[in-house]
Amino acid sequence: MTREERRESIRRLVDAAPLLPPEDIDRLRALLSVGTRRPPAMSPQRPVARPAAA
Asked: Which residues are CB-contacts of 20 (< 8 A; sequence separation ≥ 6)?
């Protein structure tokens, strides 16, 4: 199952949930969108400057 198929499957399950009020469905959709975002690109780390040995 591809990532897109999984997201669509979860959306169908959320939309079909009979006992959840609309505000809970909106909250679940918001949580789903957070979980599927890509993390920001990490900036390259610079080496830590260390004092020269005496």
From this structure: 14, 28
Please identify which residue in the block is written with the tokens 């949580």.
31
What length is written for the chain? 54
Q: Kindly report the pTM of this predicted structure.
A: 0.34
3-state secondary structure 1-53: CCHHHHHHHHHHHHHHCCCCCHHHHHHHHHHHHHHHCCCCCCCCCCCCCCCCC
Averaged over successive runs of 10 residues, the pLDDT of the chain (54 residues) comes to 89 80 81 65 63 68
